[in-house]
Amino acid sequence: MRAEFKEKKAVSIDLLTLDEKNPRLGFAKDQDAVLARMIAYGQPFFALAKDIAESGLSIEPVVVQNDGNKYKVRDGNRRISALKLLNRPHLCPDKASRDRFTKLAEIAEQNGHLLSKIDCMVGASDDAINAYIWRAHTGENGGLGRKNWESLQQEFYLLSIGEKGAFWKAAKLVLWADENDLEVSEGFSVTTLGRYFNAAKNIRLLGFDFDAEDNIFPIVPLFTAVLIVKKIIGDIESGFVHVKRGATPGTMSLMGAADRDLYIAAFRRELKLDSVDVVDPVPGANGTGARPAASQAGQPGGNGTSVDAGGSKPEAGPAQAGTPEAEGANVKGGKNGTTPATHSSLRKKYVTRALHPLEMPTGEQKIRDIYKELQTIEKCPIAGMMLVRAFVESTFRAFVRRNELMEEGRIDGASIKDMLRFIRKKLIDDSILVEGTGSDLFQKVELMAQNSIVTVPTMQKFIHSEMFNPKDADVIRTWDEFYHFLKLLWQLLAARA
């Protein structure tokens, strides 16, 4: 194996790119996202950075492979991330991390450990590098050494190199959850999920399928798919379902096939999946496009009916999961005004001035124009969804900029999700949102911040994906989710003027 690697001396850390398919972190979209996930990893990562600042880089090789005129880091991503942030603390996305790395950088410089160039081992082939990485990951040493991979990380790694583990289908569902902004803990039991999610029948009963290229896609509407996966994650992480032997009150063991069938049947009843229309991929679209499908025996059916997991045809089902009717929406207005006074189905336009009065400074002309367009448009859901997203994003950006919550150079490129985190912290620090007060608005912001509502991740999909076309009700519901929070932000901005 040693002969497959050659040492490369004094490689600039600027020429090293982090692995965006790092099995420890899941798959990130770009280099900034990798650094953000490293920081979010918490104390073990900061412990490693502190160790480098105080004691220097370890003698373990940093393994890289040629990537154009740069080198991709295949092993040693935590160390290289720490070095990048020690050299440039401003790359940290939040002030607390920047301050922390600034102090560590001073320590590193005092000790002569603020390295801008390092020696690397360049692998001759993917096979050699993959074999080395798989062997190397044993032992953790409190975050300073190599951290053991849990079953989920092992499955991620195999997928990242084009191979499949025993629970690859379950791992792909977890990756789908990550892509749709549903948080999954590092220790999530992919083996428990794999007990029932590997069987084709069960996968379809839970609203998903795989195309010919083994890509996962939902066969139910996106809103419903997100609700399904949220419940799956919650049931496993809470310990409600498990694979332990013996009965534990209040839980379900999935050791036996009969128990797995029982769980899925109960799952479908709870989420009212028998009333949800199935969609199938458009031919040639690799699972990315969808259209309504006819009923199929033993699977969720079209036209509001289906054959349930037990094989019997149900009576007319209740309202579709994810709709206001299924969630018990109050058409007369909820506590603290979080539900609009007029139900979505009774409104002709997506946004009405009477129900949604917002005041914006005259200097915010573009945002005022978007708001005006929202009040005039109807029966054009794609354009409506684009305007809703533009208004939400512009409001968040205005609030972040006026309150100087992020560095100016980062604001224009920040995502809605990132800006929401900074806004939430500001409102809590200023005691505008207070935990334990029973405020519906506080609970709504918490759900947004925890990705527990589907509007943030799905707005983009409604706009860009061929598979998900919004309906008028989707636009109205998305606006309603955000309205009272948007109103609060503009009131606070007016108070600062």
Largest sheet: 5 strands, mixed
**Oligomer description:** single chain
* Intertermini distance: 66 Å
Cα-atom radius of gyration: 25 Å
Strand fraction? 5-15%
- The largest beta-sheet arranges its strands as 1-5-3-4-2
Order of helices and strands: EEHHEEHHEHHHHHEEHEEHEEHHHHHHH
The average pLDDT is 79
Number of helices: 18
User: Structural class of the helix and strand makeup?
Assistant: alpha/beta
Number of strands: 11
- Per the principal axes of the C-alpha atoms, what is the gross shape? globular
Determine the fraction of residues in helical runs and give it as a percent range: 40-55%
Spans with pLDDT under 50 lasting ≥5 residues? 282-346, 452-457
Number of domains: 3
Structural description of this entry:
By secondary structure, the protein is α/β, with parallel strands linked by helices. The termini are far apart. A hairpin with an 8-residue loop joins β10 (279-281) and β11. The protein folds into 3 domains: 2-149, no CATH class; 159-292, no CATH class; 335-496, no CATH class. α2 (43-55) runs parallel beside α4 (95-110). 45% of the residues lie in helices and 9% in strands. The chain has 18 helices and 11 strands. 32% of the residues are buried. A 5-stranded mixed beta sheet has the order 1-5-3-4-2. It has a two-stranded antiparallel sheet with strand order 6-7. The chain has a two-stranded parallel sheet with strand order 8-9.
